[in-house]
Amino acid sequence: MEMAGPPVWLILLRGFQDAAILSFLGALAFAPCVLARDLAPRMAPPLRRVAGWSGAMALALGVAWFLAEAAQVADSHGIAATLAAVPDFVSYLPFGQVLLARLVLIALALALLARPLIALAPALVAVVLQPWLGHAAQVGGGLTASEALHLLAAALWFGELVPLLLCLRALPLRDAARACRRFAWIGLPSVLVLAGTGPAQGLVLAGGATGLPGTPYGRVVLLKAALFVLALAFAARNGLALTPGLERRPSAARALAGSIGVEAAIGGAIVLAAGWLAQLAPGGG
User: What one-character-per-residue DSSP string does 250-274 give?
Assistant: First the structure.
């Protein structure tokens, strides 16, 4: 008999918080990882705005998720009862301690936003802590490290798509093309890491190949994999077909911006699917 699944609102809350923190890290990492030195000062204000909005969303959604989990654990109803449950939630459950640590790190990164390179450090640690909020920590060993790498790669690919869109809108075509070409050098290794770590995690936690079609967990793994393949197709189109023509055809900028927007939306759906997986019992157990 299968256990009842988690409430949809909790899945969405976790998924959107995950997306916000990946966007936060991606926005902070974009300038040092992608932009040439002469372009970084021009893009600093819009990148800071994206990081600020993403970080604020990550913090607000993180607080809501923290309180929701405390209420679920204590079976409390109402804000007063939920707040009363927080001390025990943090004192006795490692899950609560990691959630709280991530909130502190996100708040610290936001406080340091005027110095993005310094803010990058606490934001990165907050993302790396994510595996300790899911099934990887229960399995331990290499799976925890694998998921940490998976999340960092997701931040460097999907989390940097919005900053890349900003480059297309704010920079001359020649400079935007440079940024797109440099992004490919970050995107390709990130895709390889995601392709290597995602299936391995899915197979282990689904209980092997037979668990993929036969359990709720496995079916969401398959959905996530299908979305990844779709995002990969758009990424290939962007890098191989649209970016090379960016300097020659102004219309290519509009086509590339639209395609990157679709790729980012698919990336958001993948992150929501990952949040769904984190709330499901592995292997449907």
Answer: HHHHHHHHHHHHHHHHHHHHHHHHH
Instruction: Say how far residue 172 (Cα) sits from the centre of its chain.
Output: 29
- Range 54-79 burial, b when 16+ CB lie within 10 A, else e: bbebbbebbeebbbbbbbeeeebeee
Q: Is 46 helix (H, G, I), strand (E, B) or coil?
A: helix
83 neighbors 71 (Cβ within 8 angstroms): no
Distances (CA, A) of 269 to 63, 115, 151, 230, 245: 22, 31, 15, 11, 29
How far is Cα 278 from Cα 17, in angstroms, rounded to an integer?
13
Contact 46, 162 (CB under 8 A): no
Distance of alpha carbon 274 from alpha carbon 270, whole angstroms: 6
Number of H helices, E strands in the chain: 12, 0
Burial degree of 207 (CB within 10 A; 0-12, 13-18, 19+): middle
> What is the per-residue pLDDT across 170-220, written as a single tens digit (0 to 9) for each?
999 999 999 999 999 998 899 899 988 888 787 777 777 776 787 888 888
Mark 90-116 as b/e (b = at least 16 C-beta within 10 Å): beeeebbebbeebbebbbbbbebbeeb
Q: pLDDT (tens digit, 9 = 90+) per residue, 133-156?
A: 987 777 766 888 899 999 999 999
C-alpha 159/C-alpha 101 separation (Å) is: 22
- Give the domain ranges of the chain: 8-284
